[in-house]
Amino acid sequence: MATMAVSELGPMLTASEVAEMLHLHVNTVKRLGDRGELPFYRVCKRGDRRFRLDDVMAFLARNR
Hints:
Layout: H1 6-9, E1 12-13, H2 15-22, H3 26-34, E2 41-43, E3 48-52, H4 53-62
Antiparallel strand pairs: 1-3, 2-3
């Protein structure tokens, strides 16, 4: 797995922010991530999920 510098990742969104953008429940967004349909990154010790804005936009384009 390649590593990326934080500056290369671009804007990052929480699962709640993605859910609001896509008009989905936050659990649905997490499920999409778990199935590999929407890539995410784990951050901090708790392992919170963060989604790249570019990945969310690509997901939208694929699923119109």
